């Protein structure tokens, strides 16, 4: 049974226009714990007309929220940040219950999510325009930066808090209003963020959370011409659908999509550091992050040593229910997820790969999977082409720098990449040659609120976090004033 220090955070209603509402139909979506299948809560399945009410409320709230002084919006966001930090344990308990990640990792995400609110509370006070020297002295030219308007966000289950605040914080800081549709697997955390937003004094309609059938809600949000901006984080497949649905209303889009990260270990790398980096980037959230290493390329001279070191560490990773102390690997989100992981391992083995450790469902049953290391993997395998989204590290052997850069870039994805070398010249060559939005050098952890997060190619459009993230919620207006 989920126990919260503040039970007020556990909601079974949607946040619309400052009120907690249920579906008129009474229809609900059950939320279950992936570790044991137990019911954690239930949330409304709102109908299209009820989503339209949220759109109307967001439009109404925009009029006043956008006209507030930036400093006043900043103060409200700062209060939201303070409340998120004060309630980090409860937010973590909700995430572990509905997503499965270990409690310590969930608490880390609660603070990571809060960091975006803290960051953009400040960035919102520094949205600067331009004055431009006019070509003739009878004109004055300026550039105004203004909030784009009503925004929508559709977010994934793997980071139930951070993927929401990484969008809502810059949107609200810029003066926009936002309607959030969280993943059906993890709505409770999103609703708890709504509780804290109200407590922070964020006015009704500025931040709203709606739950229900994804396609139906997506159809309303993408089809509305009141909504000027859609920010989506999720699979590339769904990103394509939403992009197409947004075309008729020419929405501004931010797309944070799928990945297929290469993790390259050159023969001059610090092998122990590379092993720790691989553990961090591959097995975080049981391998269910968009920036997880998906392909590990190891130069021939150190391949066997790296494989042995990594397998020893992976075999010792504690698997279990996220609420148990010391657990580092929780369950996968659902049956489809574990079936995909199994299919990747089976395909690799059928084409000649060897299982060094793990390789099958964990004895705990359910959606627990053994942390796995494969050797002898090759580019023709599913695990090289698709995002595994599970705790499986396939090791690919390579001979030369040119060969591995070509293999690393041989994908439609371009989100994150990692490489380990102590050679300065090689560092510049490889960093510049990798076709990815984000590159880690001698580290497997690159994500934070101050750096631009996002991908190239079919991993998305735009950037989140950093000083760039707020630009996604701003329109530029050029004013030419004749004074002659
Ligand atoms: N680039 C990033 O920052 C980032 C971050 C996290 C996850 N991801 C990606 O997300 C995927 C895993 O998350 P997921 O399984 O929740 O992704 P998903 O695309 O299945 O779902 C994401 C969100 O979209 C909604 N959705 C699904 N189909 C929809 C439709 N037809 N219309 C409207 N909404 C729809 C879902 O309900 C959910 O809220 C992985 O590919 C991962 O790489 C990317
Ligand atoms: O899944 C992708 C998220 O963006 C994870 S993180 O931002 O790297 O923590």
TrEMBL record:
SUPFAM superfamilies (alphabetical): ALDH-like
Alphabetical UniProt keywords: Oxidoreductase
BP-aspect Gene Ontology terms: gamma-aminobutyric acid catabolic process
One cellular-component annotation, GO: cytosol
Domain Aldehyde dehydrogenase span(s) in chain numbering: 20-478
Active-site residue list: 256
InterPro entries: Ald_DH/histidinol_DH, Ald_DH_C, Ald_DH_CS_CYS, Ald_DH_CS_GLU, Ald_DH_N, Aldehyde_DH_dom, Aldehyde_DH_Superfamily, Succ_semiAld_DH
GO molecular-function term, one example from the UniProt record: succinate-semialdehyde dehydrogenase (NADP+) activity
EC number in record: 1.2.1.16, 1.2.1.20, 1.2.1.79
Statement: the UniProt record of this protein carries the keyword Oxidoreductase: yes
Enzyme class: oxidoreductase
Top-level taxon of origin: Bacteria
PANTHER family in alphabetical order: SUCCINATE-SEMIALDEHYDE DEHYDROGENASE, MITOCHONDRIAL (PTHR43353:SF5)
Family: Belongs to the aldehyde dehydrogenase family.
Protein name: Succinate-semialdehyde dehydrogenase/glutarate-semialdehyde dehydrogenase
């Amino acid at each position: 049974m989920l126990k919260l220090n503040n039970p007020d955070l556990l909601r079974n209603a949607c946040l619309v226009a400052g009120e907690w509402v249920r579906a008129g139909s009474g229809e609900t979506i059950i939320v279950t714990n992936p570790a044991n299948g137990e019911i954690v809560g239930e949330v409304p399945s709102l109908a299209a007309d009820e989503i339209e009410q949220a759109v109307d409320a967001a439009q109404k709230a925009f009029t006043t929220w956008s006209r507030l002084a930036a400093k006043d919006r900043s103060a409200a966001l700062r209060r939201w940040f303070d409340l998120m930090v004060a309630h980090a344990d409860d937010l973590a308990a909700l995430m572990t219950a509905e997503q499965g990640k270990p409690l310590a990792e969930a608490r880390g995400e609660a603070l990571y999510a809060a960091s975006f609110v803290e960051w953009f509370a400040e960035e919102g006070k520094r949205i600067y325009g331009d004055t431009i020297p006019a070509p003739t002295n009878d004109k004055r030219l300026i550039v105004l930066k203004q909030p784009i308007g009503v925004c929508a966000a559709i977010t994934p289950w793997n980071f139930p808090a951070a993927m929401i605040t990484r969008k809502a914080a810059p949107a609200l800081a810029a003066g926009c209003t936002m309607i959030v549709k969280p993943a059906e697997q993890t709505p409770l955390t999103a609703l708890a963020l709504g509780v804290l937003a109200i407590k922070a004094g964020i006015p009704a309609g500025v931040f709203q959370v709606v739950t229900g059938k994804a396609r139906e809600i997506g159809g309303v949000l993408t089809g509305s011409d009141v909504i000027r901006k859609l920010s989506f984080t999720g699979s590339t497949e769904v990103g394509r659908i939403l992009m197409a649905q947004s075309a008729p209303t020419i929405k501004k889009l931010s797309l944070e999509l799928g990945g297929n990260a290469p993790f390259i270990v050159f023969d001059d790398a610090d092998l122990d550091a590379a092993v720790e980096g691989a553990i961090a980037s591959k097995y975080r959230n049981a391998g269910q992050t968009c920036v997880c290493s998906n392909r590990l390329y190891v130069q021939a001279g150190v391949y066997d040593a790296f494989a042995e070191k990594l397998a020893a560490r992976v075999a010792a990773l504690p698997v279990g229910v996220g609420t148990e102390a010391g657990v580092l690997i929780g369950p996968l989100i659902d049956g489809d997820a574990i079936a995909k992981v199994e299919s990747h391992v089976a395909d690799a083995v059928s084409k000649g790969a060897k299982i060094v450790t793990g390789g099958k469902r964990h004895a705990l049953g359910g959606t627990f999977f053994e942390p796995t290391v494969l050797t002898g993997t090759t580019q023709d395998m599913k695990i090289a082409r698709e995002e595994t989204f599970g705790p499986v590290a396939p090791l690919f052997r390579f001979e030369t720098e040119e060969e591995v850069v070509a293999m690393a870039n041989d994908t439609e994805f371009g989100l994150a990449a990692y490489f380990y070398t102590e050679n300065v010249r090689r560092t510049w060559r490889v960093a510049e040659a990798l076709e990815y939005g984000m590159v880690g050098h001698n580290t497997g952890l690159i994500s934070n609120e101050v750096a631009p997060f996002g991908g190239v190619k079919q991993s998305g459009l735009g950037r989140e976090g950093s000083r760039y993230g707020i630009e996604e919620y701003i329109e530029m207006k050029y004013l030419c004033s004749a004074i002659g």
